[in-house]
Amino acid sequence: MEINFDRKSLEISKRKVITGIISIEVGNDFFPEQNWNDAIVTVLNSWIENMIQILGSGNNEAKFTFFDGPFFFVIRKKLDQSVVELFRNSRSNGTDNIDIRKFGYSLLETSQEVVKEIDRRGWESEDVTQLTILIQRLLLNLDLLNKEN
Questions:
Q1: Quick one: DSSP state of residue 135?
Q2: Tens-digit pLDDT profile for residues 30-83
Q3: Long-range contact pairs involving 86-90 (C-beta distance under 8 Å, separation at least 24)
């Protein structure tokens, strides 16, 4: 499972909300859809916070929400293989086995690319500052996970 993101799609509103195309790719399918446009920085901040929780020892399950529309996915961490379940309108769209570490690095790389593009464009917002901090926390958690295994 990887994150699909289009840097050319980034836009900023007068209220400094940054939107862009973001979805997840599970197998050969995109969720919610390939060209899903959402509040990308807000989405990434939320997803990183959830990923940090699930990578730690406290939680074995986390809900990852898209902010525009009734779409989310749940990751359940298991010892051998983690599972993702996709939801539309609170109805399950099925499950798939995933490598949680691979998804964590996809989240990290996508977030870094988003920040790099936003910096290149000279945009600033509190959400971007928060994303920069969360990127460092996610990196530390992924490094700890690698040292444990």
A1: H
A2: 999 999 999 999 999 999 999 999 988 778 999 999 998 899 999 998 876 899
A3: 86/26, 86/31, 88/32
